[in-house]
Q: What sequence folds into this?
């Protein structure tokens, strides 16, 4: 992980105010020929000049590590956990961590002690489905006076995946089969029996949340139902001919969520790809990742 040798230094918005004050003090000193005014002018200027190396050195010895980013659905929130390590012996103050092009997501770290680390989480809305890569992060600081700011870019690569937004009909299709081979049939699984609750999976319909348990102070739980149909569930891209490309992927994403909620074994068929029926967290994310990367 390599960093720029010297940070980029630039004036902040309030620097113009400092220049105005210094000019006013200089004008008053010259017009009145007042020794006290000159003393105040030079003292203010000296304080500003002394603050410049403090601004430059405040980012010295800081290193950034971007930790693993959990996948999210399009339109939802991406959370990027970042660790800022202070390898120097002196405390660093007022350091903001941002991502290039997403300055509005910056998080400020008030102080990082020498030899210690701080953790922040940058959050922003996930865009369209696919795989993305963060190539660097930025450290910024206007410590100690705020008239000048220093910025340093640090290479820190991390990939993350955005799943298709789950949309469409939440009712699960059922795949039937006959002796002569597979015969896909669009059936609706209705009349499911209530079988308990389990941990909430992000992206699930809020209608299935056990709100009574939430009111009692318990974590988010999802009501579970045992499907009466015994056939293995196949989710097939080609079985949705009346939907647009992205709509098919969104519908499949919703069915994956609902199938996992119902603890059904399900497989996924995409053009050129087939994932065998299974269930569980690993299978769940494998199927959603296949949808996210599908071309």
A:
């Amino acid at each position: 992980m390599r960093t720029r040798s010297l940070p980029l230094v630039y004036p902040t918005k309030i620097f113009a105010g400092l220049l105005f004050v210094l000019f006013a003090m200089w004008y008053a000193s010259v017009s009145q020929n007042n020794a006290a005014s000159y003393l105040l002018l030079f003292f203010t200027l000296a304080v500003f000049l002394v603050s410049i190396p403090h601004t430059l050195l405040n980012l010295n010895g800081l290193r950034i590590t971007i930790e693993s980013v959990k996948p999210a659905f399009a339109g939802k929130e991406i959370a990027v956990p970042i660790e800022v390590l202070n390898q120097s012996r002196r405390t660093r103050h007022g350091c903001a961590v941002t991502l290039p092009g997403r300055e509005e997501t910056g998080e400020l770290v008030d102080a990082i002690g020498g030899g210690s680390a701080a953790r922040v989480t940058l959050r922003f809305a996930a865009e369209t489905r696919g795989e993305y890569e963060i190539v660097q992060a930025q450290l910024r600081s206007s410590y100690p006076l705020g008239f000048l700011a220093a910025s340093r870019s640090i290479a820190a690569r991390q990939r993350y995946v955005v799943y298709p937004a789950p949309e469409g009909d939440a009712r699960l299709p059922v795949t039937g089969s006959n002796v002569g081979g597979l015969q896909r049939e669009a059936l609706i699984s209705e009349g499911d029996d209530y079988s308990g609750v389990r941990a909430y999976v992000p992206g699930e319909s809020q209608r299935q949340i056990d709100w009574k348990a939430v009111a009692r102070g318990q974590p988010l739980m999802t009501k579970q139902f045992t499907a009466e149909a015994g056939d293995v569930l196949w989710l097939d891209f080609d079985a949705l001919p009346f939907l647009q490309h992205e709509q098919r992927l969104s519908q499949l994403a919703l069915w994956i969520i609902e199938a996992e909620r119902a603890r059904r074994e399900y497989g996924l068929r995409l053009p050129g790809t087939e994932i065998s029926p299974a269930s569980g967290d690993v299978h769940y994310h494998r199927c959603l990742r296949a949808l996210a990367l599908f071309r």
